[in-house]
Structures are given as structure tokens and as C-alpha cells.
């Protein structure tokens, strides 16, 4: 679905504002990564500064931590706050049925998944381009691997059907490294019919830290599009 860049930006800001309205004072909130999550953090920052909203944020990336801190938002680690009331994060693909996700084009999938599973409720924020019938529609599955022996890990991934593209930094030909200093192998499996099985099969491979399939774990989806905001539960 092709769309004007400025229109997409407006959608992200709209959905960010609605997601931020779900946070109430006293909550412990997971703060996702990526450009849509950044809109949520900005909207929360505005509420923090203008309304005196007070909550504790648990960031899923260094970039998100810096953005939240720029508004004065109080942050904690999972060590300090192991149980979250709510986690709000973006996604690269969301299925219409069951709200299964592919995440990790922004490279924060391991921390995002850890934070998600520490939260009682998970709300996903997207624009309508991200909605698909089946995962693998237009996005590979990002797989976070430890750099030691990554070539062997890649061979195992190929054996289960992955066509691999090594994630590089945009500005150079160096390997992209996550906040945890791991590499990302973007794995194209075509259309994914059994996401739960694939999520498990990938994570059984030695050297794999985590993959970007989030299966049966989304509680609500906020979708910004030409009809306004849809709130699916
Ligand atoms: O999973 C993510 C980062 O690891 C992001 O949430 C996902 O890539 C969506 O990003 P954006 O909102 O910029 O499209």
C-alpha cells in the first residue's frame, strides 16, 4: 500500500496520542522502539510536562531511553520493576486474525520481547500499512544472533527454510549491532502459515538469541488509517 510520507507521519502521531491516553498515573509502562513508539513517548512526554502525569517507563532500547529522558520521564530497569502494567510497542506486520506480529526491523526485538513478557497487557500501535492476512507478506523475520560463529547459525537457519540477508548499518558496510551487541539476520521464510511452530524452531537453533515473531501475545491493536483510529481488542 503506497502512501504519502507526511500522511504516514500524521497517522503515527494520531495513534501515539491515543496510546498515550491509556496510561494513568502510578503505572509501570514498557516503552517500545521505532518511529511509531517514538510518537507514543512524545505524547507521553507532553502529558508528563503539561498534565503532571507520573508513571515509570521501562525502555526497550537506548534510543527510546534517551527520548523519554529528554522529557524528564522517570525510567527503571526490569531489575527495579520486574512486573509492568502495560507495554506499548510498534510492529512491522500484524495479522488481522489473532494479532500475531513480526517485529524487529528497528533492531530492538530481543529487549522488546523481554519487556512484553514482563507486562500484564500488550498494546500494539501501527498504521494501516502494517495489517496483513499472513505474516511474511512484506517483511522478513529478523533473527538476533550472537556474533560468534554467526555463519554456522546462518547455515542452520537456511536448513529450516530461511533466505538470509545480513543486516548492515545504513551508513556503512559494517554489521548492524543491537544494543546488546548482537547481529541481526533478516530471514525470509515466504508466507508463514504456522508462526508458533516457526518461532519455536528458530529459537531452538544454537546461536540464536531471539526472533521477531510475537505469537498469541497481543492484547489490543491501535491502527491509524484513513477511517481514523481503530481500537481492536
Ligand atoms: O520492532 C520494532 C523495533 O525493533 C519496531 O516497533 C518496528 O520495527 C516498527 O517500527 P516503526 O514504527 O518505525 O515502523
UniProtKB/TrEMBL annotation:
Q: What is this protein called?
A: Ribose-5-phosphate isomerase A
Q: What does the UniProt keyword field contain?
A: Isomerase
Q: What is its EC number?
A: 5.3.1.6
What Pfam families does the entry give?
A: Rib_5-P_isom_A
User: Catalytic site residues?
Assistant: 112
**What family name appears in the similarity comment?**
Belongs to the ribose 5-phosphate isomerase family.
Residues binding substrate, per UniProt: 33-36, 89-92, 103-106, 130
Protein species of origin: Commensalibacter nepenthis
Free-text function comment from the UniProt entry = Catalyzes the reversible conversion of ribose-5-phosphate to ribulose 5-phosphate.
Q: Which domain of life is it from?
A: Bacteria
Its recorded reaction(s) are:
aldehydo-D-ribose 5-phosphate = D-ribulose 5-phosphate
Give the pathway. Answer: Carbohydrate degradation; pentose phosphate pathway; D-ribose 5-phosphate from D-ribulose 5-phosphate (non-oxidative stage): step 1/1
| GO MF, any single term | ribose-5-phosphate isomerase activity
Subunit composition?
Homodimer.
